[in-house]
């Protein structure tokens, strides 16, 4: 008997469930370590060396170094944890969120000021826009 | 005996805290957000609550993936402000109310809600931004606060129904406390927003308006809304709104005690950063 996962057809959305959490455990715990100023400094000084201290997959490490948040999420990252990377880089949450949408920073900001992304056409994967 | 005089509902967007801390509240982008709380600040000063029971969610600050409590009650004497990666917000530490918190924990657990009891934790923007919005920038917060953290990081969050019923149990606990305290209960988070993936930036004003209407007039029906409706309609992070049902479930009218609450204030604004800001004040009758 498998679990009911009614959220897999929501477009452009990954729900951080038990399966994703299991995959992303070390990636997210690495992010958590960036809550300490000393660790932020060590990470910035040599990202690769710092990441190699964590039992993350190579793909996860590459995604972090590329700051590819969509890829990080696909590999089990959770946005609240990944936000610590953005904070370390001096990025706002809006810059981080925008970076996942394929829009420029200005385009994303303007979309938000104009009322945000519409729900119409964004409820189901493959829905007609 | 203690009583619950009112409930307050508000979003807890981190950028709102940053705007306040960096002195940007008068900027055209932020001015409408903060103006929505002018009434509320005055109201809170006049109400003078003795304790605020503040329902919020931790954003991977107090709780990493090492420990994911669904419901956690803060029973400490005080709570430090977390460094979320930007350094701690320059706001006062939070003074708790260990005696009332312990009483609530004991009562609610005996009512079948298995809370996690937390004697040491830092509190993040989920808790401090609502305080800032409602209190401005004081040297100390106006009264003790009992932090009540709900897991919305790892799916599934507790259901709206579970939250609503928990609110009723919390009310029962507070009303059985043997000191004449004026307690407010706050539900925070939301409204519609999505912070991740290509659908980031989602806002659903129609959903939010309907949620506010039903929270006021039909909380019982609203509590039955399934998770998937929040996720699909209000965005992956819009599920924070289940926390508002804890506060609503603690109000008199839904516990067979009095008329529907008075809506003292209602506010809605898009955007604050990635998020729709919603805010309500309901007074018990």
Could you walk me through the main structural features you see in this protein, from its secondary elements to its overall organization?
The complex is a heterodimer of chains A (129) and B (285). Helix content of chain A is 55%, strand content 0%. The termini of chain A are far apart. With 129 residues, chain A is an all-alpha fold. The radius of gyration of chain A is 16 Å and the shape is flat. Chain A folds into two domains: 14-89, Protocatechuate 4,5-dioxygenase, Chain A (Orthogonal Bundle), CATH 1.10.700.10; 92-123. Chain A has eight helices and no strands. In chain A, helix 1 (18-33) packs parallel to helix 6. The mean pLDDT of chain A is 95. Chain B is of the alpha/beta class. Chain B has an eight-stranded mixed beta sheet with strand order 6-3-7-2-8-1-10-9, sandwiched between helices. A two-stranded antiparallel sheet of chain B has the order 4-5. In chain B, strand 9 and strand 10 (275-283) form a beta hairpin. In chain B, helix 6 (160-175) runs parallel beside helix 10 (242-249). Chain B is globular, with a radius of gyration of 17 Å. Chain B starts with a strand and ends with a strand. The model of chain B has no long low-confidence stretch (mean pLDDT 97). Chains A and B meet through helix 1, helix 5, helix 6, helix 7 and helix 8 of A and helix 1, helix 7 and helix 9 of B.
């Amino acid at each position: 008997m498998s679990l009911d996962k009614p959220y897999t057809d929501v477009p452009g959305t990954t729900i951080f469930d038990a399966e994703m959490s299991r995959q992303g455990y070390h990636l997210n715990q690495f992010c958590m370590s960036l809550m300490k100023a000393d660790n932020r400094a060590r990470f910035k000084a040599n990202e690769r060396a710092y990441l190699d201290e964590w039992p993350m997959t190579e793909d996860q490490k590459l995604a972090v170094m590329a700051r590819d948040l969509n890829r990080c999420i696909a590999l089990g990252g959770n946005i609240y944890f990944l936000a610590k990377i953005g904070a370390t880089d001096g990025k706002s949450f809006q810059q981080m969120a925008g970076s996942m949408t394929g829009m420029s920073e200005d385009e994303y900001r303007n979309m938000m000021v104009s009322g945000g992304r519409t729900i119409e056409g964004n409820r189901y994967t493959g829905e007609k826009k | 005996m203690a009583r619950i005089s009112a409930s307050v509902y508000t979003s807890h967007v981190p950028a709102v805290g940053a705007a306040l801390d960096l002195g940007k509240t008068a900027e055209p982008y932020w001015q409408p957000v903060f103006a929505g709380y002018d009434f509320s600040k005055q109201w809170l000063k006049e109400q003078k609550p003795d304790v605020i029971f503040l329902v919020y969610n931790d954003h991977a600050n107090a709780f990493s993936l090492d420990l994911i409590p669904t419901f956690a009650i803060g029973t400490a004497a005080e709570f430090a402000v977390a460094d979320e990666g930007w350094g701690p917000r320059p706001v006062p530490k939070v003074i708790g109310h260990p005696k009332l918190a312990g009483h609530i924990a004991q009562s609610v657990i005996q009512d079948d809600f298995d809370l996690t009891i937390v004697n040491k934790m830092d509190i993040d923007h989920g808790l401090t931004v609502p305080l800032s919005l409602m209190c401005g920038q004081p040297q100390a917060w106006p009264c003790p606060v009992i932090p009540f953290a709900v897991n919305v990081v790892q799916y599934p969050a507790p259901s709206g129904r579970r939250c609503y019923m928990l609110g009723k149990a919390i009310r029962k606990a507070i009303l059985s406390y043997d000191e004449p305290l004026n307690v407010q209960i706050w539900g925070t988070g939301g409204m519609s927003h999505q912070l991740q993936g290509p659908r980031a930036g989602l806002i659903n004003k129609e959903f939010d308006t309907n949620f506010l209407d039903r929270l006021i007039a039909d909380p019982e029906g609203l509590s039955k809304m399934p998770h998937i409706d929040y996720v699909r309609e209000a965005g992956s992070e819009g599920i924070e709104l289940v926390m508002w049902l804890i506060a609503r479930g603690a109000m008199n009218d839904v516990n067979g005690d009095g008329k529907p609450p008075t809506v003292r204030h209602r506010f809605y604004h898009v955007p604050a950063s990635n998020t729709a800001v919603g805010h309500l004040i309901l007074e018990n009758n």
